Amino acid sequence: MLTAGGLLVSLFADGPPVFVPAIAIAGMGQGAFVAVDLAMLTEVLPATSEPGAGLAVIALSYQFPQLLVPVVGTVLLAIGDAGPNCFALFLSSVVAAVPGALAVKFVSRPALSIHCGRCGEAVRYGGDMGDDRAEIRYDKRGRVAHVVLDRPHVLNAMNRRMHAELAEVWDDFEADDDLWVAVVSGAGEQAFSVGQDLKELAALESAGEVGPSSFGSEGKPGWPRLTERFDLAKPVVAKVRGYAYGGGFELALACDVVVASDDAVFALPEAKLGLIAGAGGVFRLARQAPFRVALGHLLTGRPMSARRAWELGLVNDVVPAEDLDACVDGWVEDLLRAAPLAVRAVKQAATRSVTMPLEEAFAADYPWERVRSRSRDAREGPAAFAEKREPRWEGR
Known about the structure:
With 396 residues, the protein is of the alpha/beta class. Helix content is 33%, strand content 21%. It is built from 13 helices and 18 strands. The protein has an eight-stranded mixed beta sheet, sandwiched between helices. A six-stranded mixed beta sheet has the order 1-2-3-5-6-4, covered by helices on one side. It has a four-stranded mixed beta sheet with strand order 12-14-16-17. The longest helix is centred in the middle third of the chain and has 16 residues. The protein is globular.
């Protein structure tokens, strides 16, 4: 792991960690570089072609070349996301800047599977949770982030590890200017997600590792979860097939567009379990559906079909399961045709003002609207219309 003054290295999972002092540390965005003395590191790490638990000889991200430390005889360790093909793009500049340098990527917690937005290859990072299997699949394809809850064997129930991985995903999505839309779905055909992993919860309670819990996720793994990322202005689309129960339904309610297959079923059964829909279900369902209808479902845990959810305005589209991907793709294409800053300004203004009197709504400040109104995209739209061409959005 990276420490204040260097690197704590353990080559094998059962090996003792060794401290290697750093010559320099620099960071930017989601990544960082560490320069340590090559001689010191080679004393610590025996020659091997096998990546250890602490080090993986894979790649440096070409987005950080300006951070390379021009010191002869150093090893550079990149912390952040990068695909293997990215390494080839600037390896020569690494060698030129740091003669004799060894390039490795430091992976302290190999869990989450990510695909590099630049070269498209898989990258792994994530929570310190035991084994190295990810609970989330995260792919960047052009302007779109695809987020898949990947525990189909338990109907994509959300454990603490999944929440921790999701937090890293939403952080990355929000920070990446190249991403304009996210699509969240569940692996398999049976469930979007059935919500909290109750077996894990029961085990944690039996061990005395968790205390009383109520609304929100502060202090829990993955905070803030999507249900509490109130300032996330980029649009999120939920692709729902099968069960969306408990936290799964709450996750869908927190999304901006919801597309469901005709076999989807929604429910908030927490009251039947002595629990409460504390990830926003109590609040969002009562706002998004007629109050008495919402209260009936909250008090009893009664499920509703996808068609009923559509009738209540909780779902944008309901389609046969075989048409679900195409319908979601259509929504994504429509979102990408719109100016990204305008989309964010609309989302922020609509969500913040929904409970305001109209007079207050008009007078309120919406930061994304200030950005949009002064952007090049605000001029590009009218210009493209006048010139009878498609607009070329920049997101600035």
